[in-house]
Every structure is written in structure tokens, then in C-alpha cells.
Design goal:
The chain is mainly α. It is built from 20 helices and twelve strands. Bound molecules: glutamic acid (GLU).
């Protein structure tokens, strides 16, 4: 069997964490089975679908390297085909027109609820003679769902799940205005696109039982289903904004790396021997849909931060440097001259150990980029008391005299300076760090001094003394 999977988002909002994970699982399943993975934009809800949401989905997937293998398919453009299938079902007596008015339907539903029934429509037009239809009423089309027996699905994640058919409605497949419903369109598209595996959130499990009836009525083979548990927040409820969950573009803006985000999403629900860091290549080799857990996983931003830092530490410095440059240009309109760029590149190995994301890294890299007089944060300003300023002014001479500007010599000079004055080394290092970086935390101070170079260090000290 050729494996074909799809990610089928409705473009009614941002591409969120849950959607991205569904895309990832579809992608990995296809890749690990030498199959194809496609994107279908389910834009049939014309009121709620927006161009911006389509763009956010396409850009988000592109950033995560989860774009489909082919051009996306837009569901709305396939309406004629969906209607054709409705007509086939009508002709074969597997669907029927229902002429109930909205008011009548409300009454029927109220009664069903009072009687405790799950199926809310009483199927009154199923056998009725269509010639008795009221005039000037546009009917909806409903599928004749089976009245007896049960429908069973062997779900690749949930296991065997079944419902009694009496619980299924004769649900609407074509609205009174002639537009096909989601339930119908999904099945027709999955069939026509030869989707072999439908992998999606388990909030669609109930739909699967209904969709199954359309496959059966059309005598089409059903795809395999895999309904993956939703992602929850720390409090165990469905993940939402209030848990700090954001659209994918917000994670990009906050400086997370796409490969780290994908790694984190992969671990939300799937794992391999407690490994936290699993690259895309490893994931393709190891991923098994049957190993996805049945219970919801909890979104944990700290874990994402950890994974992101790990990826940053292991990333090539050339790429990190490029990401920082892009960030600085985009957000601060700062471009780096060759000297600053060289400083940044030399400082990266020290800086990257301390940052959780590219934004933090870029902010910390500013120590190599700013020109004196530099801005002081509040703590740095407090440390630079009058006495402290005077003390570090005394460093100008020995530093100026240094002929070999290396970390070791710098360290020796600073330590001698403290010893001669009989003060702790920290009493020199702290104000010096404040003067040179405008902050109270930075990579190793000797390294910072070495990278900044003599001229810059002297200028920065002079600027505060
Ligand atoms: N368009 C649906 C959604 O965004 C998904 C449909 C499906 O995967 O079958 O929830």
C-alpha cells in the first residue's frame, strides 16, 4: 500500500501547537513509510476562513519544514465534486432530502433531548414521499445512516472503538443553500486524494464514525485512522491561550528554533527510550504511530526552553551568527560592521551557553555590538559607585601597557591589580563588568575583554570614569 497522509487545517485562526504536532506526525508517518504527505486547506467555511490564516498556516509549516510534498489543495475549490457525490448518494437512495424548517427541527431536537436520545433528528423525511414536500422550501440532504448494528474502527492509537449505530444521526451532507458540509467534503477529498492514513486530533473521533458511513454508502475503502490525544495545559484542561500556548509564529518571534519546536512537539505524545533530543532524521527512522500515547500530554514551556537551549548549543556558529544578525536587523534595525561581526562570532561560544532562545542570545550579544557610552541597566549603574568608578579607572594604565592582549595576560593583570590593593578580585571584576557590558552578568570577563580588544575596552572604561 502506498502511504499518503494529509494535514487538513481549517484556516479560521492561527496555526497552533496542536495543529503543528498533527502536521508533524503526518509528515513523519509518511516519511518513515516512504509515502507522501500533503496539505489540504479546509476553507469551506467561507465566513470564518481568512486569507491571513491560510498564510499563517503555510508560513508556519514552511518554517517548521513541514510543507506538503505537493501544492496545497483548497477544499472549497472542490465543491462541484462534493455535490456530485451527494447526487450519487441521492440517486442510489443512500441519502434523502429533508424539508424540515428550522422551527420544526428545534421542536424535534427538544423532544429527543427530553427523551434522552443521542440522535437528535427523528429521520421523518427518510421514508416520506418527496411529492409531499412543502412548496418554496430548499431541502438539506441527509445521509441514511444504518439503524441497527454498530460501527467499529480499529484506530491505530485508540485501539478498537465502537458505537451503536442508533446513536448516529442521519446527518446533513448538503446544506439548504447547496453547500456541502465538512463531514462530506472530508470524506470525498480523503478518498479522491487516496489518503491511506488519517492522522488527526482525537476531537475528531466522533466524526470518524459518521464519516465511516459515507465511505460505506459510496462503497469506498476506508483509510486507517489514528486519533491522537489533544495537548493539555499544566492544569490538565485543553490547551489554550491562557496556558501560554501561542500561534507558531509567536514562537518564531520569541526566538525558538524550528527544529527545537518540532523536537518538543514530537515528544508531546511520542517518545523513544526517554531520549529528549531526537533529530528529524532520527525521528523519521524511529517514528511509529502505534507508539503514540493514549492519554493527553501536557504542554511544558520549560521543557521547550531546555530543548531549545540544547539545539542552540549544538548548532553551527555560522548559523547562529546569521540568526542573530537577522534578528538584530529585523527588530532593532542594527547592521553589523566587520569588526562587530567578528567580535560577535568570537563571543558566540560563551554567549550561547547562557541563552534559552535567539532573542535572549541576541540581547546578550549586544555587549559586543554597542558603542560607548553604553547603556547601563539599573543593577550595573548601582554597582558603579563613585569609588568603584575610580577603582576601575586605575585599570587603564596596566591594561594599556599590555603588549600581548590575551585572556591569560588579561587575567594576570586584573588579579595583580586586586592583590596590590589588597581587595577581593570580585570587587574589581564586578564594576569592570558593569562598565564594559552595562550589565551584571556576562560570559567570562577575561574573554569579554579579550574579544572587545584594547581600544574598545579603554574607551568603555573612560566613558564611565
Ligand atoms: N479541518 C479540520 C480541523 O481543522 C480537520 C479535519 C480532519 O483532519 O479530518 O479541525
Amino acid at each position: 500500500m502506498t502511504v499518503i497522509t494529509r494535514f487538513a487545517p481549517s484556516p479560521t485562526g492561527l496555526l497552533h501547537i496542536g495543529g503543528a504536532r498533527t502536521a508533524l506526525f503526518n509528515y513523519l508517518f509518511a516519511r518513515s513509510n516512504n509515502g507522501k504527505y500533503v496539505l489540504r486547506i479546509e476553507d469551506t467555511d467561507r465566513e470564518r476562513s481568512t486569507k491571513e490564516a491560510v498564510e499563517a498556516i503555510i508560513n508556519g509549516l514552511d518554517w517548521l519544514k513541514l510543507s506538503g510534498d505537493e501544492q496545497p489543495i483548497y477544499q472549497y475549490s472542490r465543491q462541484e465534486r462534493h455535490r456530485e457525490v451527494v447526487n450519487t448518494l441521492l440517486k442510489q437512495g443512500k441519502a434523502y432530502k429533508c424539508y424540515c424548517s428550522a422551527h420544526e427541527l428545534e421542536e424535534i431536537r427538544a423532544l429527543a433531548r427530553r427523551e434522552g436520545k443521542t440522535a437528535l433528528y427523528d429521520r421523518r423525511w427518510r421514508e416520506k414521499d418527496p411529492t409531499t414536500a412543502p412548496p418554496n422550501v430548499n431541502p438539506v440532504v441527509r445521509l441514511k445512516s444504518p439503524l441497527k448494528g454498530s460501527t467499529m474502527i480499529d484506530d491505530l492509537v485508540q485501539g478498537r472503538v465502537a458505537v451503536k449505530n442508533e446513536q448516529l444521526d442521519d446527518f446533513v451532507i448538503l446544506r439548504a443553500d447547496g453547500t456541502p458540509t465538512y463531514m462530506l467534503s472530508v470524506v470525498v477529498d480523503d478518498h479522491d486524494m487516496e489518503i491511506s492514513h488519517v492522522i488527526r486530533g482525537d476531537d475528531h473521533l466522533n466524526n470518524a464514525f459518521r464519516q465511516y458511513q459515507i465511505y460505506a454508502a459510496m462503497d469506498w475503502p476506508t483509510p486507517k485512522f489514528a486519533h491522537i490525544p489533544l495537548i493539555h495545559g499544566q492544569d490538565g484542561t485543553k490547551l489554550s491561550k491562557r496556558h501560554g500556548a501561542l500561534g507558531i509564529d509567536a514562537y518564531k518571534d520569541q526566538g525558538y528554533l524550528p527544529e527545537a519546536l518540532c523536537n518538543y512537539l514530537l515528544r508531546l505524545g511520542w517518545g523513544h527510550e526517554n531520549e529528549e533530543i531526537i533529530t528529524r532524521e532520527q525521528a523519521i527512522a524511529l517514528f511509529e504511530i502505534g507508539a503514540v500515547g493514549k492519554s493527553p500530554s501536557r504542554f511544558d514551556i520549560k521543557k521547550l526552553d531546555n530543548i531549545n537551549s540544547t539545539y542552540m548549543r549544538e548548532m553551527s556558529e555560522a548559523r547562529l551568527s546569521h540568526l542573530i544578525e537577522t534578528h538584530l536587523f529585523k527588530n532593532l534595525n542594527v547592521t553589523l560592521d566587520p569588526i562587530k561581526l567578528e567580535r560577535l562570532n568570537r563571543g558566540l561560544s560563551g554567549l550561547k551557553l547562557r541563552a534559552k532562545n535567539i532573542n535572549e542570545l541576541a540581547a546578550s550579544a549586544m555587549i559586543y555590538i554597542v558603542s560607548p557610552p553604553i547603556n547601563m541597566d539599573e543593577k550595573a549603574d548601582n554597582i558603579l559607585s563613585k569609588d568603584a568608578r575610580q577603582l576601575i579607572r586605575g585599570l587603564l594604565e596596566p591594561l594599556n601597557k599590555l603588549t600581548n592582549w590575551s585572556k591569560t595576560e588579561i587575567e594576570e593583570t586584573l588579579k595583580n591589580f586586586a592583590t596590590c590593593r589588597d581587595i577581593k578580585f570580585g570587587s574589581v571584576a564586578q564594576p569592570l563588568r558593569a562598565a564594559l557590558t552595562g550589565t551584571t552578568s556576562s560570559p567570562d570577563i577575561f574573554e569579554v575583554i579579550e574579544i572587545l580588544g584594547k581600544e574598545e575596552v579603554v574607551q568603555r572604561i573612560e566613558a564611565v570614569c
